[in-house]
Specification:
alpha/beta, Alpha-Beta Plaits, 10 helices, transport, translocase, ATP hydrolysis activity, ABC_transporter-like_CS
Length: 300
């Protein structure tokens, strides 16, 4: 596959802060690529360097074989960018907003109106943007990023602060964007989002990439135990901890959780004791990979 993005050892320092500290990766044409990390990991700065919004202190970036910095007019028609927060013009309707963005690229109003249909905002065309919901605003910002038909789309936390229904609806839109052959680069705090949408992910922290690969591969390589839960009270924590193949048992008063690397043996033992009520079994997830790499401490 042809490479859409090539990043080689880029660095960006702000006095003593190493915002990006030797990052290298490549993104293939048509790939859905995710960049994950806690607050301050360097995700947004990395994106801004690739987008040509910020200069790296060292290293190199190529997008479609071209350097994005200094601002490269050849790349602008081929790139669409949805930022964490999009500032729309005051007192304009949804239709007026997207037509304004389209005109900046020399795109006619017909295409702008088509984009409203694509993102499901045709019924809100005459509504002023300040009256749109959070999910509708995010859809409009993505429509503005796509209105000129870019080959490469950058999405910086597109589902932040959305309710679960709005997030799921937006996922469907992002899948459609990628299915059209566009390369998508996504940053997100939501591990389930990255696991479902991305072909590969890079986990960043302290300006560095800690792991990179398909979500399923990273999860498999973690070698995390399976967690089996049943209703609390069916077995005591002490009895559960002595079952064959159980590595650890914990009871929080609602659920009894058993950790094991041999789930079949544990399930048989629970069935023999008629202790299957509320049974759920879960293997490792991308969130487990993320926490294993970046730690569990809270970061503002």
């Amino acid at each position: 596959m042809a490479l859409t993005i090539e990043v080689d050892d880029i660095r960006k320092y702000y006095k003593d802060v190493h915002a990006v500290d030797g990052v290298s990766f490549a993104v293939e044409e048509g790939e859905f690529f995710g960049i994950l990390g806690p607050n301050g990991a360097g995700k947004t700065t990395t994106l801004e360097i690739i987008e040509g919004l910020r200069a790296a202190d060292s290293g190199s970036v190529r997008v479609f074989g071209e350097s994005p910095w200094p601002r490269n007019p050849k790349l602008l028609p081929r790139i669409g960018v949805q930022l964490q927060a999009t500032a729309f013009f005051d007192r304009q309707t949804t239709r007026e907003q997207i037509r304004t963005f389209a005109s900046l690229y020399g795109v006619g109003p017909k295409r702008a109106d088509e984009m409203l249909e694509i993102v499901g905002l045709a019924e809100k065309a005459e509504v002023r943007t300040e009256k749109l919901s959070g999910g509708q605003m995010q859809r409009l910002s993505i429509a503005c990023a796509l209105v000129h038909g870019p080959d490469l789309v950058f999405l910086d936390e597109p589902t932040a602060a959305l309710d679960p229904q709005a997030r799921r609806n937006l996922w469907d839109l992002l899948r459609e964007i990628n299915a059209q052959g566009r390369t998508v680069v996504l940053t997100t705090h939501y591990m389930d989002e990255a696991e479902i949408l991305c072909d590969r992910v890079a986990v960043m922290d302290h300006g560095r990439i800690l792991e990179l690969g398909p979500p399923a591969t990273l999860i498999r390589d973690l070698d995390s135990p399976t967690r089996i839960t049943i209703e609390s009270g069916l077995l005591t924590e002490a009895v559960a901890g002595q079952l064959a193949a159980v590595d650890r048992a914990t009871d929080d008063g609602v659920l009894l959780t058993l950790e094991t690397r041999e789930p079949a043996a544990v399930l048989v033992a629970l069935a023999e004791r008629d202790a299957l009520r509320g049974l759920q079994a879960q293997g490792a997830t991308l969130e487990d990979v993320f926490l294993n790499l970046t730690g569990r401490e809270y970061r503002a």
